[in-house]
Every structure is written in C-alpha cells, then in structure tokens.
From TrEMBL:
<dbReference type="InterPro" id="IPR047817">
    <property type="entry name" value="ABC2_TM_bact-type"/>
</dbReference>
<keyword id="KW-0472">Membrane</keyword>
<feature type="transmembrane region" description="Helical">
    <location>
        <begin position="226"/>
        <end position="248"/>
    </location>
</feature>
<keyword id="KW-1133">Transmembrane helix</keyword>
<dbReference type="InterPro" id="IPR051784">
    <property type="entry name" value="Nod_factor_ABC_transporter"/>
</dbReference>
<dbReference type="InterPro" id="IPR000412">
    <property type="entry name" value="ABC_2_transport"/>
</dbReference>
<protein>
    <recommendedName>
        <fullName>Transport permease protein</fullName>
    </recommendedName>
</protein>
<dbReference type="GO" id="GO:0043190">
    <property type="term" value="C:ATP-binding cassette (ABC) transporter complex"/>
</dbReference>
<dbReference type="GO" id="GO:0046677">
    <property type="term" value="P:response to antibiotic"/>
</dbReference>
<keyword id="KW-0813">Transport</keyword>
<keyword id="KW-0812">Transmembrane</keyword>
<feature type="transmembrane region" description="Helical">
    <location>
        <begin position="136"/>
        <end position="158"/>
    </location>
</feature>
<keyword id="KW-0046">Antibiotic resistance</keyword>
<comment type="similarity">
    <text>Belongs to the ABC-2 integral membrane protein family.</text>
</comment>
<keyword id="KW-1003">Cell membrane</keyword>
<dbReference type="InterPro" id="IPR013525">
    <property type="entry name" value="ABC2_TM"/>
</dbReference>
<feature type="domain" description="ABC transmembrane type-2">
    <location>
        <begin position="25"/>
        <end position="251"/>
    </location>
</feature>
Length: 253
C-alpha cells in the first residue's frame, strides 16, 4: 500500500513539475520581488537603518528568504484551483490511484520550486555581500527550517486552492503572509518599534524563525528561538493539513 502511494505521488509530482518547467515565468516572478526588496534595503534604506550590525545584508537575508517562500506558495493555490476547475481531479479519481497523491504532488512541487527560488536569492545575496560562517550542520538546520516553513505554508495554500471561487481568491491569501516579515525582526530590531507594534512583532512566528535562521548563519547560540520557531511551523502544519484534507474530502465525495 505504501509503495502504491509513493509511486502515485511520484507520478503526480512529475506531472506538476513539468507544468512548472514549461512556465518558468512563475519561478522568475517569485524571485523578482524578494530580490527587489533585497536590493532596495541594501542600497537605498540600509544606510539609514540602525540594525546594530556591520553587514546589513546578513541581517536581511533570513527575512527575504521567508518573503520568497510566502510569495511562492501562492502559485500552489493557483495551480490547485486550476486543476479543480478543469475537471482533471475527477479524471484522476476515476483511475486506480491513491487520492492523497494528487495533493501531495502539488505540495512537493512547491517544495522543489521554492528551493530553487531560495537558492537563486542566496546566490544574489552572495554577489552583493552576504557572508556566513555557518558550518555544514548549521546550513542543514537552516534548510530544514525553511523546508518545514514551506511545507506549513503550502498546506495552508491548499485550503483556498480547494475552496476559492476565483483564481485571485486562491492566491490572494498569501499577500498578508508576504508582508508579515515587515512587522518582525526581519528588517529592524523589534526594540526600535513602538509598544503595541513591538508586542505583536515579538510574538508572531516570523520573528522567531528569522532570529533562529540568523543565529544559525552567524554561528551564534539560537536559544529558545529555534524551539519557538519549530513549534509555530509544526502547529501551522498540523492544523493546515487537517483543514486541507477535510476540504479535499468534501470536494471528492
């Protein structure tokens, strides 16, 4: 049974990846905005921002990566919505395949496409001064954190992909997620923010994730941030997965 599910998921992944590679403009679009933010804060705003660091690009990079992922997952919702409206789901369900493989194909495609976007952005960051003293284990920890964050947001994207009535509705939910890093420690220390804004910034998931990734890049102690970040990502993932599967069952019954 497990082998059957894995093979079916592989087929669905291959199908979805082919759609992405035939439309590379989606990956280009996803990377353009975060790169634009990176360049804007590096060369326009960076000189005026006091972040208590000698290399502001290093300070920026974790938040820019999260913005890229939040932007990328909107395409998961859009592709899923397109499949639902085209009737291809009904065709798949008439075949002897594992039903969960249809969703997992889209989810794994999101992981692959976002990994490419993250790699491109890190490459641009290196070109404009990003440097990290992190060792292999720290880089693997960063990769794991970003993967878990991507997986959590992707399952969140599946919900509007299954339930939205328009293409814009399937992808628009990601806009608040894209701007959430701006009210966090991604660009400035939270200590510089006024009281209510600071309270929100310090207790929302992006701040813990950004702080944990930044500490890993700089080989600094991560403290409680990594556990808070993992708890947020795992909690969002569990809830989003449950809601997405409930919505999927309603669609296919």
């Amino acid at each position: 049974m497990t082998t059957h599910v894995l093979s079916d998921t592989g087929v669905m992944l291959d199908r979805s990846i082919k759609h992405v590679t035939r439309s590379l403009d989606t990956i280009i679009t996803v990377t353009i905005m975060p790169i634009a933010f990176l360049l804007l804060f590096r060369y326009v705003f960076g000189g005026a921002i006091q972040a208590n660091t000698d290399n502001y690009v290093n300070y920026l990079m974790p938040g820019i990566l999260l913005i890229a992922i939040a932007s990328g997952i909107s395409y998961t919702g859009f592709r899923l919505f397109t499949d639902m409206k085209s009737g291809i789901f009904e065709r798949f369900h008439s075949m002897p395949i594992a039903r969960s493989s249809v969703l997992w194909g889209h989810v794994l495609t999101s992981l692959v496409s976002n990994a490419i976007s993250v790699a491109v952005i890190i490459g641009v960051g290196l070109a404009i001064g990003f440097r990290s003293s992190a060792g292999l284990l720290a880089w693997l920890a960063v990769a794991g954190m970003l993967t878990l964050f991507t997986l959590a947001l992707t399952w969140l994207a599946v919900i509007p992909g299954l339930t939205a009535s328009t293409p814009d509705g399937a992808s628009a939910f990601s806009y608040p997620l894209i701007f959430l890093p701006f009210i966090s420690s991604a660009f400035v220390p939270t200590e510089t923010m006024p009281g209510p804004v600071r309270a929100f910034a310090e207790h929302q998931p992006v701040t813990a994730i950004v702080n944990a990734i930044r500490a890993l890049f700089e080989q600094q102690p991560v403290g409680n941030d990594i556990w808070i970040a993992l708890a947020w990502c795992a909690g969002i993932l569990v809830i989003a997965y449950a809601l997405a599967m409930a919505a999927y069952r309603r669609k296919i019954t």
